[in-house]
Amino acid sequence: MAGDDTPEFDGNRKLKDLERISQTKQEKEIERQLEFGLEAASSVNDRSISLFARGSQPAFAGINTFMRAPYCEDIRKVGEYEAAFLGVPFDTGTTYRSGTRFGPQAVRRISALYDGYSVDAGVDLTEELDMCDAGDVFVIPGNIEKSFDQVSAAVSHVYTSGAFPIMCGGDHSLGYPHVRGIAPHIDGNVGIIHFDRHIDMQEMDMDERMHTTPWFWTSNNHPDVLEREHSHGPGQHHDHSHMHDVGLDNCPPKNLVQIGIGGWYGSRPGSKVARERGSSVITMHDFETMGPQKTAEMALELAWKGAKAVYLSFDIDSLDPAFAPGTGTPEPGGFMPREAFEMIKIIAAEGLCGMEVVEVSPPYDVNDNTSQLACRVILDVTSAMVAACKLGHRSQVMKPE
């Protein structure tokens, strides 16, 4: 069309990029599986196949770790990797239906379907990112506060070791101990971008810190702190052992951005807190008006303003339950997967200090759809960071053009 200044489409650009990436890890993997799994029967023509399954194929065989990454059994060595998948099988904080304690294992199992090579992203995660599976945090069933302490200590260990922490829950009460494991180690403010259908910002739910409360306890500058100190003495209803634990010093509400909020459940108490503290709530109506790109750009601007790092929290129920039925509190009217993928890739390309995917409840899933989408969120985030050279070692394995 005359006067059309649309850039010429290069349909093979990503393929060309992938061609420049080495295959060293894949070649070593074949050598390893032949050494440990023995040579295949003489009738098998493909001599890269072993007798015992010791590699990524078949997808339905083998011992599951996330993306068949090495299992870091000695957690003291987690710093030898650039990223670590960390399962947090905790669902004591659920208020409707439980089952998210089985989320990490379900995501691991379905991840065997993938090989880490994406034409769409132009990334080979296997080659460009040294990732391990750090196993699961030892949570204490029935005890929220002890589990929170375990989780924060575990996340802190992974983060300070130098590996990018990828937390897979578990219910969304974990948002607070996850961030508590990272924020104290960052010299400056931490922004939080939170995808969800529920605002999760009320103070308490049924007298406990549940999956409806994480961002109340994470964000600081609480207007009720002084009131609490003056109005609630020993023996009154706020006299809990954890009540000193109000707000992380470097997680201001101005840098908390929540995307996809809406529906008909659980938002009123949290909305009051959000208004009082001045956090940013982008509802589904707002998203429909702005679209994925503008929404992501606005979230980045708000979360990064005056901050040194940004954390990504992705509740799988932000996706419409038509796509992600396996979750504890489904709410119709959420994102379509492609909308969410577009936003998280834009956000991740700016760099993150950590991420979580929560609320995958396999007992309510259909054909592993929800677990697979959770896996895709992790892959799309990490690949966007790798492509932007915010994670991994792309420059070491990609030949120059």
Quick structural summary:
This protein has 401 residues and is an alpha/beta fold. It is 34% helix and 13% strand.
What does the oligomeric state look like here?
single chain
Regarding CATH, which class?
Alpha Beta
The Cα radius of gyration reads 22 Å
CATH topology: Arginase, Chain A
Placed side by side, the strands forming the largest sheet appear as 4-1-5-10-9-6-7-8
Total count of strands: 10
The rounded distance between the terminal residues' Cα atoms is 31 Å
**Per DSSP, what share of the residues sits in E-state strands of 2 or more residues?**
5-15%
**What's the rounded overall pLDDT mean?**
88
- Per DSSP, the total helix count is 14
| Helix/strand order | HHEHEEHEHEHEHHEHEHHEHEHH
CATH superfamily: Ureohydrolase domain
The computed structural class is alpha/beta
Biggest sheet character: 8 strands, parallel
Shape assignment:
globular
Which spans have pLDDT < 50 for at least 5 consecutive residues? 223-241
Q: Based on the structure given, which CATH architecture is correct?
A: 3-Layer(aba) Sandwich
Helix content: 25-40%
Overall tally of domains = 1
Summarize the structure in words.
This protein is an alpha/beta fold and 401 residues long. The protein has a single domain, classed as Ureohydrolase domain (Arginase, Chain A, 3-Layer(aba) Sandwich). It contains 14 helices and 10 strands. The protein has helices spanning 13-19, 24-37, 103-111, 125-128, 144-161, 175-182, 214-218, 225-231, 268-277, 284-290, 292-304, 337-348, 369-387, 394-397; strands at residues 83-88, 117-118, 123-124, 131-136, 164-169, 189-195, 256-261, 280-283, 307-315, 354-358. The strands form 2 sheets. An 8-stranded parallel β-sheet has the order 4-1-5-10-9-6-7-8, sandwiched between helices. Helix 3 (103-111) packs across helix 13 and helix 10 (284-290) crosses helix 11 (292-304).
